[in-house]
Design a protein that fits this description.
Helix 1 (about 1-20) packs across helix 4. It is built from 23 helices and 22 strands. The chain folds into four domains: about 1-215, Alpha-D-Glucose-1,6-Bisphosphate, Chain A, domain 3, CATH 3.40.120; about 245-350, Alpha-D-Glucose-1,6-Bisphosphate, subunit A, domain 3 (Alpha-D-Glucose-1,6-Bisphosphate, Chain A, domain 3, 3-Layer(aba) Sandwich), CATH 3.40.120.10; about 350-515, 3-Layer(aba) Sandwich (Alpha-D-Glucose-1,6-Bisphosphate, Chain A, domain 3); about 525-650, 2-Layer Sandwich (TATA-Binding Protein), CATH 3.30.310. It is of the alpha/beta class and about 650 residues long.
Length: about 650
């Protein structure tokens, strides 16, 4: 049996060596524990044995092997209690990082030692394993998302399609720390991993391909439901027939730079091509990670180059008619930002993360209303009349606090509310769940600052859902009975003069509200600080900012139109407005919102301290020009550094 032979000759040898010849000291385990990040969105550290984050080794240290075992033990205890089943079923998968297979094997051994039925998928994209997890009691996903190749980590979830809610994540992390605090944790890990009988683990590996196929089928079915917003299979088929028919009129080619990610063995090719979309992939071998993993502009250039090559090699007829889109997922395949061919300047361009999210929100809000209309959209000059359908549905969008305010402008045109949570996918997902319980229709949510989107009922980002949001904008056009999505948007935003029948993505982008926003991957988006206590730094920042405001308020009014400001903090799913004490934001997000003479929102400064390194993530969002954004961010940075220095002297 191929799986068994490969497993027994490579992985098992490493396990035996670690737990018979290379046991760590208790101090080694504590040192590794101290440098491990335990957040609601996932746990991670540099697992490469050398502790070099760029190391492509498959080996991990013995101390990290013990940590992996205790991570699995903590989840075993959690899922047994949560499911209340005598033998819970857990699905386990990895992204394509070199250390993934060894960590997976350790965790499988611990799970089966604790009486868990394990279904092992091998390499699986995060949205894939989470879609399949609905059929199990929980999942363990080994990944460090967009971090460099030497990192690895774990995401845990039950059977609701997303990572654990904050409360459960806190319980799990506390239990993990307790397990690691006992001096017998090393002996426990050894006993779990040196199985007396390997038959069970061989059986798990031998069935891996069967469960992988089931996961792919579940993911395909789930994605069809998410994209179409229809649970009924017949309605799904009708919707996709409609898209396929329109794709013949507006041909589209999607280019993927897989960068060796988990999506190399997922559904992308089959799902896109079955609906008439042409598909072309590079770096499509699992583990063929040829450049940095994070899907930010500096790494999307490879996808842009491939689109340029394809465009240049195409005949003139294709060049004139075809739309070219591209994407690059991160290693676990839940995030993928977009590249497109700009027909106006004949060049492949990278869409900014905030623009990707804005387009997705525009598409899905318009699509929500489109599905519920029977007649043509009424051509009225009264903007309130234009929004009545949106209001009737009680539409809402949920975002993280540094998402650009362009989302509020877009949402208003569709009669939708916007709610904000603290940074962290789990926070956004949980706030959306809260709002649905209150009667809101939350079709789309996400962290606009990072790009990509989460489309309900999915509870995780997915580049396919982002792509299909754009495809719907491009393919759902005017019919005798309905206005298409883009035409609908142009009417609602009082920009019908910008609509034309043969529009391109460039035309859609040109209608987005104009904002200048700091990019999350820019060097300017980080302020290095020495103060480790976030509350002290924020208290000092308040004193400095209020003094600066009193000195500069006339200048700020004349130069930027700022008449007032409102301090806001976001902690978890809670947003608190007009706070009087900035330190109440604790480790959450703190925002200074600037307003105009009529109370309209014009700009904001934002900050949130990193939980892992001595820096504050910062940004500025401005309705206006990049020059204003640069000036305000420079002022913001200066005040943070002054606050850092001041707080250290207290």
């Amino acid at each position: 049996m191929k799986n068994k032979q490969k497993y027994s000759s490579v992985i098992e040898t490493k396990i035996e060596k670690i737990f018979t010849k290379s046991l760590p000291t208790f101090e080694d385990v504590q040192k590794s524990l101290d440098s491990t990040i335990l957040s609601a969105s996932g746990w991670r550290r540099v697992f490469a044995e050398s502790q070099n984050e760029q190391d492509k080794t498959t080996n991990i240290s013995s101390a990290d092997a013990v940590l992996a075992a205790m991570m699995s033990k903590s989840f075993s205890d959690f899922i047994i209690q949560k499911s209340k089943k005598e033998v819970p079923t857990v699905v386990l998968g990895t992204d394509t990082r070199p250390t993934g297979a060894l960590i997976a094997d350790i965790m499988i051994r611990v799970l089966i030692s604790n009486g868990i039925d394990v279904q092992y998928l091998g390499i699986s994209a995060a949205p894939e394993i989470m879609a399949y997890s609905y059929q199990t009691d929980g999942f363990v996903y080994i990944s460090a998302s967009h971090n460099p190749i030497g990192h690895n980590g774990v995401k845990f979830g039950t059977n609701n399609g997303g990572v654990l809610a904050s409360k459960d994540a806190t319980i799990l992390a506390d239990n993990f720390r307790k397990l690691c605090s006992h001096k017998d944790c090393i002996e426990q890990a050894k006993n779990f991993c040196l199985l007396q009988n390997n038959a069970k683990i061989y059986k798990i590996y031998s069935k891996s391909s069967k469960f992988k196929e089931k996961a792919l089928n579940a993911y395909t079915s789930f994605t069809a439901q998410v994209v179409s917003d229809k649970a009924d299979k017949k309605q799904q088929k009708a919707f996709f027939r409609f898209l396929k028919k329109n794709s013949k009129i507006t041909p589209i080619t999607v280019v993927a730079d897989m960068n060796g990610s988990a999506r190399t063995v997922s559904i992308d090719n089959d799902f896109l091509t079955r609906f008439g979309i042409k598909y072309h992939a590079i770096n499509n071998k699992p583990g063929d990670i040829v450049h940095e993993i994070i899907p930010e502009p500096e790494n999307l250039i490879f996808c842009a180059e491939e689109i340029t090559n394809i465009f240049n090699s195409s005949n003139s007829d294709i060049k004139n008619k075809e739309t070219f889109l591209g994407y690059m997922p991160d290693c676990d395949g839940d995030r993928g930002n977009i590249v497109y061919w700009n027909k106006n300047i004949q060049k492949a361009e990278v869409l900014k993360a905030q623009e990707v999210f804005a387009l997705s929100v525009l598409a899905e809000l318009s699509f929500s209303i489109y599905q519920n209309k029977k007649d043509d959209f009424p051509l009225t000059e009264n903007i309130q009349d234009k929004k009545t359908i949106g209001i009737a549905q009680k539409l809402a969008v949920v975002v993280n606090d540094p998402t650009s305010m362009r989302i509020e402008e877009i949402a208003r045109c569709f009669g939708a509310d916007v709610f904000r949570a603290e940074v962290g996918e789990a926070n956004v997902v949980n706030l959306a769940r809260e709002k649905r319980k209150q009667g809101f229709v939350v079709r789309i949510l996400g962290e606009g600052s990072n790009g990509g989107n989460i489309t309900h009922p999915a509870a995780v980002r997915d580049p396919l859902n982002t792509l299909f949001a754009l495809l719907k904008l491009l393919l759902i056009k005017d019919t005798p009975k309905k206005k298409g999505l883009f035409h609908d948007w142009c009417i609602r935003s009082n920009q019908e003069d910008k609509f034309k029948e043969n529009f391109s993505l460039c035309d859609i982008i040109a209608t987005l509200p104009q904002y200048a926003t700091t990019g999350v991957s820019e060097k300017r988006a980080i302020a290095a600080v020495l103060q480790k206590e976030h509350t002290k730094l924020k208290a000092a920042y308040q004193k400095i900012f209020e003094e600066e405001w009193n000195i500069k308020k006339t200048e700020l009014k004349q130069k930027y139109g700022f008449y007032s400001f409102e301090p806001i903090c976001n902690n978890g799913t809670t947003e608190t407005r007009n706070i009087s004490d900035y330190s109440v934001s604790k480790t959450g997000g703190l925002k200074i919102l600037f307003k105009g003479s009529n109370g309209e929102n014009l700009a904001f400064l934002w900050m949130r301290g990193s939980g892992t390194e001595p820096v504050f993530r910062i940004m500025c969002d401005v309705k206006g020009t990049s020059k204003t954004e640069e000036e305000l961010l420079e002022w913001h940075t200066k005040m943070i550094l002054q606050a850092d220095e001041f707080s250290l002297k207290q």
